[in-house]
């Protein structure tokens, strides 16, 4: 990291003298400090825009603002995480949601400002008091490589480097690797670079403290996944799953199992109606729905399901769409969108959390020799998983709705699974090279009763692998997992509680 800082500092020094430009207002034109004039709107510029809201349905306000920005000529390419924050300056008002987007526009800086002000006005913002309540607040943080100072617009936005609720989402939009000269110029706008400025404010140590919570919206609430590890209980509605196929393929037995998992401490119930074990035969959309929907409808009638989340394990977009319409909350896609080209578009329109898992091939091919070749499994899983969520983001699934799963047991050998369990922070760091925001998404790990545990522990039967599962879950939680997906909820919930208590003692990172 010290070497990185030295290289960045050196590049920033050169950038300040060569790359970044300043503008001053002059009629309809802007000018370089060298007095060479250009029309800014004649070329595309990369921009960063901050979003804030604390009046009405804050998340819906964000969604509406994003939609209106796209219609106004802003191509959104990246989303930061979502933050719930205490108000600054004027403190007697509701909590804010804050985030930021990165994108491209051909609008000139004042045209962009006018477009954003128009969106604010149409969404009900009035002048009011400065820093007071507002349904939406849209601020230009960066505009290309340029500094802008006019009577109505200052870029970089004033006071940007003193505000954690601005800096946190801004840094999310970057990678630890500098991906282009424009981003390098953004770093140069602060004295020591954006990363150093964020660290000077407190950096990641501020998250969860001082009114700055990183959250994921689900089921009409904001989930702060850093507070405790969530336990996801598996409900297989299949006749051929590797562990419990055929045990819960009737509505009655499935509902009984759900009741048990809830009583044992499950936070999430994951319903799967299609087996994804190695060499599993793919069933049709209709057959999957026929297995799934009757059980889902009955689960939703259970009084004890109040406050719990329902996840749907499917790689079919049609199944995802129907299940969410019926009342499910999360889509869990083992293919990361690879097995249905409509999945990302459907999830984007549904506005629900999306679990993207790493897998090469499909269940019938994932364990062939080609899909098991890795030179560095943590690096390659991180890179390949990032490419899937990056594609999802470009299709409209914001980073604040994504959950990552490195895919224990899917196109992995025993040693690969062990490397992943021991290397969760490494996987995050590989993703962080390209997107710090994506690297900070909740991380789900599903080692439950997998074959590699049987190979190591000498347990041929899947149901004998619960002790090994508890050990794997313990390793995962201590290594940074936020959700664990298990068959045996009771034993693993106890393991999770112990791990959370230990992490709370030393301070979570």
The CATH architecture of the largest domain: Alpha-Beta Barrel
Record the strand order, biggest sheet: 18-17-16-15-14-13-20-19
CATH superfamily of the largest domain: Dihydropteroate synthase-like
Q: Which parts are unreliable, with pLDDT below 50 for 5 consecutive residues or more? A: 24-41
The largest pleated sheet is described as: 8 strands, parallel
How many beta strands in the DSSP annotation? 20
Rg computed from alpha carbons, rounded to a whole number of angstroms: 24 Å
Helix count from the secondary structure assignment: 17
Structural class: alpha/beta
Overall form: globular
**Approximate strand percentage:** 15-25%
Structural domain count: 2
Q: Classify the helix fraction into a percent range.
A: 25-40%
Q: Please give the CATH class of the largest domain.
A: Alpha Beta
Mean pLDDT: 90
Q: Quote the CATH topology of the largest domain.
A: TIM Barrel
Cα separation of the termini: 17 Å
Domain Pterin-binding: 229-497
Family: In the C-terminal section; belongs to the DHPS family.
GO cellular component, one term: cytoplasm
Keywords: ATP-binding, Folate biosynthesis, Kinase, Magnesium, Metal-binding, Multifunctional enzyme, Nucleotide-binding, Transferase
